[in-house]
Amino acid sequence: MKEVLLVGFGAVGALCTLTSKSLSRSGIARVTAVARSNYGIVRGKYSLCLTTRRSRVCNTVASAADQAYDYVVVTTKAVPELRLTPEILSPLLSPEYTNKFAQPTYLLLQNGLNVEKDLYNAIRKLNQGKPSIVCAALYVGTNLAAPNVVVTNDLVNHFSQRESLFLGIYRHEDHTTSANSADETALLQDLGSIFQRGGSAITIVPEIQRVKFAKNFWNLSFATFATLTGYTVPSLFRSPPASKDEQCNPYLYPITAELVQQHSIPAIKTTMKELLNRDPDNSHVPSMLLDARRSQPMEVEVIVGEVHIDMLYALLLVKQNQILGRMMAQ
């Protein structure tokens, strides 16, 4: 039986713990879930469900740091302006814990790029060997509509030939290795088996950063525009013209138009299919837009700041700074 600690009981954390595609349903994992802001609701409403699956719920990481874990799954949002991941996990990195227990493998189910760096450096300082961190790209359409209500949709079904969860080894400052070692393969298969037996579809990849970049591009393209406009993704698309004779394209010189059709349009469509692959009729509310509507801090730095899309970054910082300012004033 694998011991798994799940930190963060929002939409993704709840899916990992309670739904038909959950770690606790795998039969090979005992899950300890840390629910901070919604601990009372989770404890009261789902305590029987968790107990019958040989799992438990705690209100802090400190209260859960009473045993060894094989895996720590982090589903909190990465908002470095508020707290870094090592700060959230500090009880597991403290001398009181590390003197008793070995460090687990950490799985970061977080949006954005380079979310692993701070945790990697914090574990390195413990002098307990090379940090073991698994990266993930998670494709799932889910929102926490209320403290005890998780809404999901068929977003994943709109991805051609894609599974919902990609897993790969985090290799710090290593941008050339493109194959898993035997030990890395064994680790990923062991971790992946828990998700698979719980009902989730996973894909193990030899180099995860490319997959994470594609997922981040997807977030960057849609979540940011939705947040700045205040409208969900369908508003970014337009319906095709009612008549084939209706002019809806700018005029191009015939030779230029032929080159555009021959080279530019196929390239754009291929990029859209590979990186975006989004159904315009999907009604999912991007989490960044949902945070903005609720005046909650957004994942601006890790999604937009890491790729230096300066105009989007600057505009989103205006929203983010106002949200953080109101929080500080309370």
UniProtKB/TrEMBL annotation:
Q: Tell me where in this chain the Ketopantoate reductase C-terminal domain is found.
A: 208-307
Please give the start and end residues of each transmembrane region. Answer: none
The residue range of the signal peptide is none
Gene Ontology, cellular component aspect? cytoplasm
Q: In this protein, which residues make up the domain named Ketopantoate reductase N-terminal? A: 4-152
Q: Which InterPro entries match?
A: 6-PGluconate_DH-like_C_sf, 6PGD_dom2, KPA_reductase, KPR-Related, KPR_N
Q: Which PANTHER family match?
A: KETOPANTOATE REDUCTASE C-TERMINAL DOMAIN-CONTAINING PROTEIN, PROBABLE 2-DEHYDROPANTOATE 2-REDUCTASE
Q: What is this protein called?
A: Ketopantoate reductase N-terminal domain-containing protein
